[in-house]
Design brief:
The protein is an alpha+beta fold. It is 27% helix and 33% strand.
């Protein structure tokens, strides 16, 4: 039970400490749901306002995130991806023993806008493949990828081909190997569409990745924009002198 009385920490502070310790000890692992608010109310004899205040501060500290329609998930340990490595999302997750999933995938032919045309070194308005995918970890949406590929190869227009690793698909079905990439990462905010697709807060912080991939012949092959939920993912690099 929680301590009450003069000199004791506030009920909110005590509940925060309990939840933090349980996360650190692995009682609740990344991607798992915390108990419901009512469970904490009944277990510790405290008000709903106190529970919400404690969880709200834990969310600000990056321990948890409240997801509409799902509950409060643990985020203490974000998934990390090396910045200086050519590896797709699927391979990176599998290397960590995690099997990623795809919430949705679509492919269509569109006209290249100015940004896409510049990246692919083609004229604005030329047709390109647009592949849009929402990728998940532990069934929690983490990133939306928009990938653009020139029409010099014939890609299948069935979405079912793009639920697994895109790089594996290109390698196995079209003999294309992405051998070099250049990428930039900036910060941004989720708009209404992203908030809906990734089940995150509108205007919540995002990591915006823009990547150009080159094939084994050194030719520009793909341009990808990735929008990551910042509370669920991070990039890192390791440098040596």
């Amino acid at each position: 039970m929680l301590k009450r009385g003069k000199g004791a920490p506030t009920l909110k502070e005590q509940l925060m400490s309990i939840i933090e310790e349980e996360i650190q000890q692995g009682v609740y692992k990344q991607g798992e749901l915390l108990p419901r608010e009512i469970d904490y109310e009944e277990k510790y004899g405290i008000s709903r306002i106190t529970v919400r205040a404690a969880i709200g501060e834990l969310e600000q500290k990056g321990y948890v995130e409240r997801i509409k329609g799902k509950g409060t998930i643990v985020l203490k340990y974000k998934q990390s991806e090396p910045l200086l490595k050519i590896e797709g999302f699927t391979d990176e997750m599998k290397a960590k023993g995690i099997i990623p999933t795809t919430k949705s995938a679509t492919i269509s032919l569109v006209k290249a806008d100015e940004t896409c045309a510049r990246a692919l070194k083609i004229d604005k308005g030329m047709p390109v493949y647009e592949i849009i995918r929402v990728r998940c970890i532990n069934d929690i949406p983490v990133v939306r990828f928009k990938t653009y590929i020139k029409c010099h190869i014939d890609l299948e227009l069935q979405a079912s081909h793009y639920y697994d690793s895109l790089y594996d698909y290109l390698r196995n079905h079209h003999q294309v190997e992405i051998s070099k990439i250049t990428q930039r990462i900036t910060a941004g905010l989720a708009d209404e569409v992203l908030a809906e697709e990734l089940n995150c807060n509108k205007k919540g912080p995002m990591l915006i990745l823009k990547r150009i991939g080159y094939d084994q012949h050194g030719e520009v092959f793909e341009y990808t924009e990735g929008q990551y939920v910042a509370s669920r993912y991070e990039y890192y690099m390791e440098l040596e002198k």
